[in-house]
Amino acid sequence: MTRRQIARQLVRAACGGGCSSSPQSHSLRRFALHDHHFGNISGGNLSATPSDFHSYLCRKIRHAQERVILASLYIGVGSGIQVGDISTSKDHYCKEDEFLQSLHFAASNEKIQQMQIILDANRAMRKVSFTNKRNAGQSHDSNQGSSMSTNSADTVLSTLQPFLERIGRDDLSNDSSNGLFLFPVNDQRLCTILPSPLDEVAGVFHIKAYLVDDELILSGANLSEEYFSNRLDRYMLLTDGGGGQVDFYAELCDELCSYAIKYDGQSSLLFTQNNRTRKQQLESSLTRLFVDESQTMLPDSCNKYDVPDHVAYAIPTFQMPTSFLGRPFQFQSDTDACRDLLLAAVESEQNMSVRLSSAYLNLTPRLRSLLTLFGNKRGGAPYVLTAGAMSHGFAPKKQTQSQRNTVGIVDRIKSSIPEAFLTLVKEASQSIIACGGKVLLYERPGWTFHAKGVWITAKDTTRRELIHDPTTIVSTIIGSGNYGARSEDLDVESNCIIVFNEQSKTEPIQQSVANDWNNMCKHSAVSGDLDFRDDVDKLTTIVVQFMRKFL
């Protein structure tokens, strides 16, 4: 079987031709990508850093000519310095300030026709302290007694004010494609019962897509200080319209905003439009967007003279919690697309290996079983990479002596989370290692780990965690999902599956994708070399059970 035939099989499976697809599901839309559709925000062959992500996005927003569309969990609130009067003083300046200044600059540009930002409703309204150099690693933490606090929604609304005032004068203020929108995942009753930030536990809008003019960055990173500085993530830049994908994601944000609440500073308006009719309308519009009825399914075989000039296929995916409508949406979900892609790789005639990274390793039983199939097949192996004890971001905040003397149940729960997280890692390690795979823990001083994705390689018989030959990569997945119970059952997610065609021009793109994985491995240790506690206390055991459902 040739690589082109393998690519076609993987595309067919991811689009909805696999066994996970429900009978009523339709085939997902696919996009053909050329080499010029792939960019690199680092400006070189190395993997992009959080600083590269920040610099590139700020620069593109400042020089935007037509539109700025951002979908994220939240946006950092900055240091509290008035936008438009940001100081570069080392004592006060933070990277969130520069990002907000870039947004304000674009909002003041009369050429801009569309500025649309969609955030999670609960997270955007959470009261948080302003960010500065000293608490940059804890950006967007809940306000704990600080006299200086705000929230993401009000900060962004203020930043967009010049643009909003201009479109208001042009009688476009009610245009659903412009402004700040807050997406409510859960019903008002649940949010009323749970105080902030506990209302985020039941589910959040988790999509990350950053669109400026004809370019799109797909990532798992939020837009705050740590994601601009020292929280590791992945980024894929699509340029020149991305073969239609840039407009596709713009339309996706439009449809999501049509359901979300347009925020004008009045928090009492939140959730007022959250009803079943509107949910069904959203499902219908998203089905029309993600499904292309006129698109023909790729055949298993291909004529040897039929050589396409594109280098890859892209399949955007979407995941809505079943609780949203009480049932799945009527098209292939992200979870099923990922599962069908992996199953097709396992069943191919090649020696396939899979590599998966997740910020929060909480593999569902079905996904764990599927990963082990790669190890049970001759020549292949599964490799899983997640945060280690140094870089998982769950470490308790430092306390004063008086605070330590009055430790309550909430503090005890927080302090047990790191051990509970490593318990989940240990459980995953046992099944992955048993089938010949490895679990690696990212350990890098001063950094936290948030990168997620999938890498599938063919003819990979080395049984080594590094990807030595980038041309063996046949597919990768990038986006917001963490491949755990939370991403599958609670949050609104979107990933993008990339399947590489057999083309000589593909190698530089595959090299960049391989670098993402290999650079993470450089700061990682094999979990089998680390010690895990077997004497977990009762409280940690309870926290583990909670995390299995909500992590």
Structure, described:
The chain is α+β, with helices and mostly antiparallel strands and 551 residues long. The protein has 17 helices and 21 strands. The strands form four sheets. The protein has a nine-stranded mixed sheet with strand order 1-13-20-19-18-14-15-16-21, with helices on both faces. A hairpin with a 2-residue loop joins strand 8 (209-212) and strand 9. The protein is globular. The two termini are 39 Å apart. The mean pLDDT is 86.
Q: What is the distance, rounded to the nearest whole angstrom, between the alpha carbons of the first and last residues?
A: 39 Å
As residue ranges, the low-confidence spans are none
Fraction in helix: 25-40%
* Rg, Cα atoms, Å: 23 Å
- Principal-axis shape equals globular
**Overall pLDDT:** 86
Quick one: biggest sheet?
A: 9 strands, mixed
Number of helices: 17
**Strand order in the sheet with the most strands:** 1-13-20-19-18-14-15-16-21
User: How many distinct beta strands?
Assistant: 21
Q: Strand fraction band?
A: 15-25%
What class would the helix/strand composition place it in?
alpha+beta
